[in-house]
Amino acid sequence: MSKVQPLFHIPSRRTIKRDCYEVYGELRINLKQSLREIQPRICLTTDTWTSVQRINYMCLTAHVIDRDWVLHKRILNFCPITSHKGEHLAESISNCLLDWKFDNVFTVTVDNASSNDVAVLELSKKLDMCGTNLMEGKHLHVRCMAHIINLIVQDGLKEIGPSIKKVRQMVKYVRSSSSRARNFLKCVEMQKIECDKMLSLDVPTRWNSTYLMLDTTEKFEKAFERFDLYDGNFNSFLATDFCEDGNICELNAYLKLCVASDDLDLSKMASEMKEKFKKYWGTPEKMN
């Protein structure tokens, strides 16, 4: 940066941290003032999760409509919590509302976890004590519509579960290495498929991701039909229907891939494992 612009002085991380806190403080004061002026009924949404470091987090968002009937949403808090128990969630939400001096809560929208039922019930009791619980909290608890729709769809997808699993295996195989991705692109070019999207895997926490995976894969159907010309292990990886246990089939397919690996150590180790595999599960008659 000193060569690009000698006059520019890069601030330290402490300076950036201090500036971020100052901006947050100003925005917080402005938000409090604006909400105090319009005095709206506040609708809350909240969700919790656990990070890979096993730390529990909660995010609390406020939704309000101003006098011009414009919907606004602001994150009130993003904080670690002690656990996902309903009592602890209610305490965290209450502490956040006290910190913001909010007691005019209209609804709380959460997913269908049983702990959320307890959390909203405990929060309703606290609002009763403040005398601001509208209609004695009969309509305080709102269940997340998107979560309910997702549960309905997931139950329906069980009927075509094996097909979805097969598509997922195909996509995972292509995406697992750069060489396979390059070979797949050659198939796409050979089949003259014009599509701006690329293959994507679904994830449980992104509810529309299964649809996106299926929708995109369908556009590359002809490329998958020719992919075995560029990758001889592709069909063997997918040929698992004869097995009684899908996990055994996946292990067999994975061992085949490792045996064919360019890594000599990995190939040798996989070959020895493959021999043991054949001894116990080499033929369907040996499986019990």
Describe this structure in words.
The chain has two domains: 105 residues, Nucleotidyltransferase, domain 5 (2-Layer Sandwich); 124 residues, no CATH class. The longest helix is centred in the first third of the chain and has 26 residues. It is an alpha/beta fold. Helix 2 crosses helix 3, helix 5 packs across helix 7 and helix 10 packs antiparallel against helix 11. It starts with 12 loop residues before the first helix and ends in a 7-residue tail after the last helix. It has eleven helices and five strands. About 2% of the residues have low confidence. Strands 3-2-1-4-5 form a five-stranded mixed sheet.
What characteristics describe this protein?
288 residues; alpha/beta; Nucleotidyltransferase, domain 5; 2 domains; 5-stranded mixed β-sheet; 11 helices; 53% helix; elongated; ZnF_BED_domain_contain; hAT-like transposase RNase-H fold domain-containing protein; RNaseH-like_sf
